[in-house]
Amino acid sequence: MTDCELNDPVTIDPLALSSEDRAWVEGTLDTLSVEGKVGQLFALSSIGDDLAEISRHCALGVGGIHRFPGHDLKAAWEATRAAIQESRIPPLISGDIEGGTVSQAFATAVPNQMGLAACADEDLSRRISAIVLREARRQGFNWTFSPVVDINRNFRNPVVGTRSYGSDMATILREAGIMTEVLQAGGIATCAKHWPGDGIDDRDQHLVTSVNGLSMDEWHASFGKIYRTMFAKGVMSVMSAHIALPAAFPADAGAGRFVPASVSKRLNLELLRGELGFKGLIVSDATPMGGLTGWQERAEAVPAVIENGCDMFLFSPDPGGDYRHMMDGLRRGALSEQRLEDAVRMILTLKARLGLHRMTLDEWVPPLEEGTTRLSTPESEAVAAEANARAITLVKDTQELLPLDPARHRRVVLLAEEGWNFISGALPRSLDVFCEDMRRAGFDLRMYDAETPPAPEDTDLVVYLIGQEATASLSHIYLDWTALHGGARKAMKRFSREIPTLMISLGQPYYLYDAPDVRTYINGYSALPTVQTALVERLLGKAPFTGVSPVDPFCGEEQLRY
């Protein structure tokens, strides 16, 4: 890659406006008081469908509201409409639209990003994106904090995993490009995250300031290329994370080399805007996260987020207090008037680019038909079921266990770990569909009992079923043998040499690292009900395994292949 290829700025402006829309931006900016401009900087979270919380946010004059809707469509619809009606300036309504078990209870349960990548089918990815677009627009969303364009290079990273498209750059660029093209053509701004790139460190920025430890040459050839390509695709926003990129700083900068990108002028204004030429909106990652709170005290961090290049400040444990911190930062010069002006202009520009100032309420959030409880259709459910099934990946079967047969493997012991999810409003987690389908197929399935562990005389098959997808604050990816087997001493027992053993992950794809003795291993990427049903069909040989692994499930270890 030449210096010219690395350093020439991107010329595309994803937020280019007509003269009429530009006049609305400048006219609106002129009408705002200083207090009104500060309010626009905030994108606050709305947990569930609490109308009182939304009213408090709107009273601050916030620029955006990030929705974590509950499980009732009508309540979610009413809450979003309230946010629009109570806002003086049309708000950005954002969401974490990533699929998997983060899908909403009343929407089509589409694959998470890794599951979609495992399908390796551009047409299917476009059909899934079209479903996401239709249902998100019906809910009033105009901004999604996706796609995740992180490179899942470090298999021990707990928060990238199934939220990513994997470790292959071509796959990441293909899938992220499709999502961006489809959603933005339909009026929803996308957001490439997590700048300057996650997946190198094995820690989670929700808990610590994590580090992208690549050299700048390595960074430009990987993350730099990904972001430049996304800019060429016209992505409208980038999320600046609490991740450090020390190679971008002089070697003698000491602790300053490890400043989170969210409060780094060097990373946001000089590298992202200057060297890479990004012209869209920069939003911080969630500011209550440990990667920021562990770096800087709140009163300093709040204005620093905007002063150092982010245009929008995401989430707050104390919205009123953070508003006061921002105002105080402006008074004492920690936030310049110029940065305030530039940031608010960028926020209004994104709103104008999406045409929010021209929408009626019913155009924005269409009326619900009487009795409607779901957004999905039979057609969308069929497409999602196809994708969820096609993603399932047979990693290895060196013992030639498959297909399973109730005549040979009737007595099955199941050791299950459902996992959990950080996201409010995420789908409930259950492995019941797998159990019911196995029993219906003729297997005598019983749950593991630590006091009477399986033995060859009473068990034909041991199945480990892990449902943990990538999620915030998970800390580490590993098999908790103590929890699975019911005690520290029992954790040391392995059944695989005495009883045929099958391990299935309906989440993170790397559990073989902790189970090298397991000779039959499958990745399903999420525990959605349609995945579980399709999994049983494939275990029985009724359908082929078609998934193409987006990562190395052997974690670079030859031992795991056998």
Automatic annotation (TrEMBL):
Catalyses: Hydrolysis of terminal non-reducing N-acetyl-D-hexosamine residues in N-acetyl-beta-D-hexosaminides
Q: What Enzyme Commission number(s) does the record list for this chain?
A: 3.2.1.52
The answer to keyword Zinc-finger applying to this record is no
Annotated keywords: Glycosidase, Hydrolase
Q: Which SUPFAM superfamilies match?
A: (Trans)glycosidases (SSF51445)
What is the enzyme's class at the highest EC level?
A: hydrolase
- Domain Glycoside hydrolase family 3 N-terminal, which positions? 34-350
Q: Which Pfam families does the entry mention? A: Glyco_hydro_3 (PF00933)
Transmembrane annotation, as ranges: none
Q: Which family does it belong to?
A: Belongs to the glycosyl hydrolase 3 family.
Gene Ontology terms for molecular function: hydrolase activity
The identity of this protein, by name, is beta-N-acetylhexosaminidase
Which PANTHER family does the record match to this protein? BETA-HEXOSAMINIDASE, BETA-HEXOSAMINIDASE-RELATED
InterPro entries the record matches? GH, Glyco_hydro_3_C_sf, Glyco_hydro_3_N, Glyco_hydro_3_N_sf, NagZ_Beta-hexosaminidase
Species this chain originates from? Novosphingobium mangrovi (ex Hu et al. 2023)
